[in-house]
Write a structure and sequence with these properties.
15-stranded parallel beta sheet, flat, 53 strands, 18 helices, Leucine-rich repeat, LRR (right-handed beta-alpha superhelix), nine-stranded mixed beta sheet
């Protein structure tokens, strides 16, 4: 490949995927002096790979996967001076390096070298730089590096070195820089002392606990020992000739700094993030080369100003920069220099604090502890606490009555600043009833608030000529005696608020000519003498709000020329015209002084009249005297009633929102209430007619049981496919009939006569719907293919549900959406149904139970001891003396057991009124007489449907039928009830001979119980429709039994 490149000097093959190079591949390149093979995929270096490269002086093979180098690999590269084998998989120092006698720098970093022995670097006498960073090298013993006499830079960082023998570098006399950071060294005593040429030593991130400046050579200039466990920068031998210029001892456990802890030659000192709590005075004196000191994030609480004292810095040099933020400074009286430290630059003896804005002070005083920025703290906030103090010039400290002795009263806390210009005595909240007697005479601030003083005696503060601030607020003071504040000539702030002072006669504040702030708010002051505030020539702030002032001439405070702030609100000012005009005029002219002008109210009335108030209106120019005219207020201020109006409107809005939400979500709310507490909402009261037109389907269903529904025999008629009977019987019927609801169900295939289901389903469906409060359809694919596919069933169901769509419930099971969409006769039922449920949906049973109203009649009715029989045509209604149980499946469809023919005879249909009259007596139970049936559906198949019935076209509505049945009045009812309500329909009987039965047997006129239950359809329409249906086939004779529906 390279045979014609004889004069090639530099070959760069970096960042490729070379994993193998043939032997003698570079043989023609005898002028090549630089070869770059880094970041490839080489694994092995063969013996003849570099043959012919006699003048090669730089070879880079870093970033490969080299794990094996032949011992003869560099024999022909004798002139090689730089070799980089970093980032490979070497586990030991290659023996091939012995042939590189002129090698200057060797990089074996980021390999897997765990150890090397004496002789590993044999013949490398010219080597000046050795990089072994990021390996697994353990201890260093003497002899390992003795073959490198000219070594100047040694990098052993990030290895696993735990111990270095004292003579390990004995023959490396030219070493200038050593990196041992990121190892596990715990001791360095005597290891580096003999290396006089050493200039840089990095021992950071080790486990060193003990350090002394005697452990390092004198000529060392750069020392990094951060990230160890050093507790002190020791200087046992008091070495002063150290030449260290940069010292990084941060992130250790150093607790104290002293002049010997810092070398005099240091320029950059990093001692941040330690545990330093003490900095000795003159620590940084004589450090003439100092330019920067980082002391932030330590534990310094107090520090004398002399701790930062420097040797005077020449004018041509900048002041050293100090960083002291992040320390928990306790700004007591010894730290008052801190806010002004940067203002002392003129002396050139103190540094510049660069992060003073980040330094926070914790101040302690009479008002508690506060954290404030050091740059903005006031000098009077730097306080120290004392119990007793005697000045040097005081000669009576040994006696009890000594005015110049500062003794803190019992139970109190006393504070002073460094110059004693502030002397604060805190006796607040002690519960004392008298002012402590031994308050220091030089006290400048006295706090007596929160006690029970009641009365301030005269001359109680006599002699406290230096007092500037006095707090006697919230102490239950009721009166102030004459000359109470006598002697307080320098008093500037007086707090008397939150007491029970009732009046100020005028002598209370005499001789307080320097008082600037007076706080009298929230008392019970009703009278203030005209001369009360006159002596207060320096008064600037006056608080009078929250008292009982009525006619105090506020304009008198105009004599206090320096007054700039006044509060008057919360007082029952008089609304008399003369006073109100003067008050409004003065407040208007001094609005810049009255800070609560909007809260000034005047009050009308007194004990005999109702008291009303009005806000002071400074814009009014005239008023009418309430008392002179004897009138009343025309109106009450609207603002007085705004809260009440707002609260009322809010309550109404919330109530309306609740009503709307309850109406919108009435069905889920009603279902929940019914399942939880058995309550039904939106139910119609008995005797009150409600039509479905006036309410929605859901509301109509929730209306529950009307008068007609109460007399129905069943709670629900369930229509389903015979293929779904297992689901209906074992799931649906079990839950509704035997569950908590206890409903009475009429199941289509269980309770209806099988003959009528097969041959004449229309009458059975009509009567079953009439006898039930609700109609439930189990809508499945089987239902659509069986029951719904029969024309007679659809016509009967349509006729039965006319006008009762709101009583329809549909339960969908399975995915039948496509079939439903394709059926034009089924879609209207789904649109008008009161409730559509999906089997398995959430809250299925609760919604279903809520939609079906339960019967209000008792299942077991006790009868009287007498027996009454009422004959209605051929129907016999009998009340017996023994109790009867209404069973769910009683069927009064009576078939004659002796004859195998079925004949429809004349039947009377009773309206709701006659039925209610007939069954009005609750003490008797109804029992309809049954004849044994003429046939059974148990095992014999049913007769097939008539052919003409299958082909019969859809009938028109009953009203349009040309042949109407003859309506006659059954004379058997005339004695029992009005004739207008008794209508019978006569239908032709069926020839029994066609059924194969020899005798003619007729069924009793009672037919079945459905005929005695009212429905929403007229008897005329029902009978007309029935006349057009073919008669059912006669069943075969069988043993007599009663059918229970």
């Amino acid at each position: 490949m390279f045979k014609d490149l004889f004069f090639l000097q530099i070959l760069d093959l970096r960042n490729n995927s070379i994993d193998r190079i043939e032997s003698n591949a570079f043989l023609p390149l005898y002028n090549l002096h630089t070869l770059e093979l880094s970041d490839n995929k080489l694994h092995t270096i063969g013996a003849q790979l570099f043959n012919g490269l006699f003048v090669l002086n730089r070879l880079t093979m870093s970033g490969n996967s080299i794990s094996n180098i032949d011992t003869m690999a560099f024999r022909n590269c004798s002139d090689l001076k730089e070799l980089d084998l970093s980032g490979n998989e070497l586990t030991a120092v290659p023996d091939a390096l012995r042939d590189l006698a002129f090698l200057k720098t060797l990089d074996l970093g980021e390999n897997r070298i765990s150890e090397f022995h004496n002789g590993s670097f044999r013949n490398l006498h010219q080597l000046t730089g050795l990089r072994l960073i990021g390996n697994d090298i353990g201890n260093l013993t003497h002899g390992m590096l003795w073959d490198l006499p000219n070594l100047q830079i040694l990098n052993l960082a990030r290895n696993k070195v735990q111990h270095v023998e004292r003579h390990a570098f004995e023959r490396n006399i030219k070493l200038e820089a050593i990196r041992l950071d990121g190892n596990f060294l715990s001791e360095i005593n005597g290891v580096f002392t003999s290396i006089t040429s050493l200039l840089l030593l990095n021992l950071s991130e080790n486990h060193i606990e003990w350090f002394d400046y005697a452990f390092i050579p004198v000529n060392l200039k750069w020392l990094d020992i951060h990230g160890n466990f050093i507790e002190s920068l020791g200087n046992y031998y008091k070495i002063r000739n150290s030449k260290v210029k940069t010292l990084d001892a941060s992130h250790n456990r150093i607790t104290e700094l002293s002049p010997l802890s810092v070398p005099d030659s240091v320029e950059l000192l990093f001692i941040n993030n330690n545990y330093i709590s003490t900095v000795r005075p003159n620590t940084f004196a004589d450090k003439v080369n100092l330019t920067r000191v980082d002391m932030y994030a330590n534990m310094i609480e107090t520090m004398e100003l002399t701790s930062l004292l420097l040797t005077k810095v020449p004018e041509n040099k900048p002041l050293p920069e100090f960083y002291i933020g992040g320390n928990p400074f306790n700004c007591n009286c010894s730290m008052d220099w801190l806010p002004a430290i940067n203002n002392q630059t003129s002396t050139r003896e103190y540094p510049r604090v660069m992060d003073l804005d980040n330094a926070m002070c914790r101040t302690s005083g009479p008002r508690g502890v506060a954290i404030v920025p050091a740059s903005t703290a006031r000098s009077e906030q730097f306080l120290c606490r004392y119990e007793a103090h005697c000045f040097a010039l005081c000669h009576c400290c040994d006696f009890d009555a000594c005015d110049c002795e500062m003794t803190c009263p019992a139970g109190c806390k006393c504070y002073n600043d460094r110059t004693w210009n502030t002397n604060a005595v805190d006796c607040s909240s002690l519960g004392v009833e008298e002012i402590p007697r031994r308050i220091p005479m030089d006290a400048t601030e006295v706090y007596l608030d929160g006690n029970v003083l009641r009365e301030l005696q005269n001359h109680v503060f006599i002699g406290r000529k230096n007092m500037r601030v006095l707090y006697v607020n919230a102490s239950g003071i009721e009166s102030i005696q004459n000359r109470t504040f006598n002697g307080l000539n320098n008093l500037q702030i007086l707090h008397l608020e939150d007491n029970r002072i009732r009046e100020l006669k005028g002598f209370e504040f005499e001789r307080l000519s320097h008082l600037r702030e007076l706080y009298l708010q929230n008392n019970m002051i009703g009278f203030i003498g005209n001369l009360t505030f006159l002596p207060l020539r320096s008064l600037e702030i006056l608080r009078l709000h929250g008292n009982r002032l009525v006619t105090f001439p506020v304009w008198q405070v105009t004599l206090n020329a320096r007054l700039v702030e006044l509060s008057l609100g919360g007082n029952p000012w008089s609304c008399r015209c003369k006073f109100l005009q003067e008050l409004s005029s003065w407040v208007s002219d001094n609005a810049h002084k009255v800070i609560d002008a909007g809260d000034v109210w005047c009050y009308y009335g007194g004990d005999a009249r109702p008291s009303y108030r009005r806000r002071l209106n400074v814009n009014e120019t005239a008023c009418s005297d309430y008392f002179a005219q004897g009138g009343v207020i025309e109106s009450i201020m609207v603002s007085d009633y705004l809260p009440l109006v707002a609260a009322t409107l809010s309550a109404i809005i919330v109530l309306l929102v609740i009503i709307v939400l309850a109406f919108v979500f009435r069905e889920p709310v009603g279902a929940w209430a019914y399942s939880k507490y058995g309550l039904r909402f939106l139910r119609t009261k008995p005797g009150k007619a409600v039509t479905t037109a006036s309410m929605g389907p859901a509301a109509a269903m929730a209306a529950g049981c009307c008068d007609a529904d109460r007399d129905r025999l069943y709670d629900c008629y369930v229509c389903y496919s015979p293929n779904d009977e297992d689901f209906v019987l074992h799931s649906l019927a079990v839950e509704l009939e035997h569950g908590a609801a206890g409903l009475r169900l009429c199941l289509h295939h269980r309770d209806l006569p099988c003959v009528l289901r097969a041959s004449a389903p229309a009458p059975a469906v009509l009567e079953a719907v009439d006898a039930s409060r609700r109609v439930l359809i189990v809508l499945t694919r089987d239902f659509l293919q069986t029951e719904w596919s029969r024309f007679e069933f659809r016509a009967a169901l349509h006729e039965a549900l006319r006008g009762r769509a709101s009583q329809l419930i549909v339960i969908q099971a399975g995915n039948i959406s496509i079939e439903v969409e394709r059926d034009p006769e089924l879609r209207p039922y789904l649109r008008t149904a009161a409730l559509i449920l999906t089997w398995g949906e959430k809250r299925f049973w609760e919604r279903l139970r809520y939609a079906i109203p339960s019967s209000t009649t008792t299942a077991i009715i006790a009868t009287s001891t007498t027996t009454t029989t009422t004959a209605v045509g051929d129907v016999s209604v009998e009340s017996k003396s023994s109790p009867l149980v209404y069973k769910r499946n009683i069927n009064t469809y009576t078939l004659d057991g002796g004859v195998g023919s079925l004949e429809k005879t004349g039947m009377s249909t009773l309206r709701g009124g006659q039925r209610a009259a007939l069954f009005k007596d609750a003490s008797s139970a109804l029992m309809l007489q049954h004849a044994p049936p003429a046939y059974s559906c148990g095992g014999a198949p049913l007769p097939p449907m008539l052919p003409q019935q299958q082909q019969q076209p859809q009938l028109p509505p009953p009203s349009s039928s040309p042949a109407q049945p003859r309506l006659t009045v059954n004379h058997a009812y005339r004695d029992a009830m009005p004739a207008s309500n008794l209508i019978t329909t006569t239908v032709a009987t069926t020839n029994t001979a066609n059924c194969g039965v020899g005798e003619d047997h007729r069924r009793p006129l009672s037919e079945h119980i459905y005929s005695s239950i009212d429905s929403d359809y007229s008897t005329l329409e029902r009978t007309a429709w029935r006349q057009q249906q073919p008669p059912p086939p006669p069943p075969p004779p069988t043993s007599g039994q009663a059918y229970l529906v």
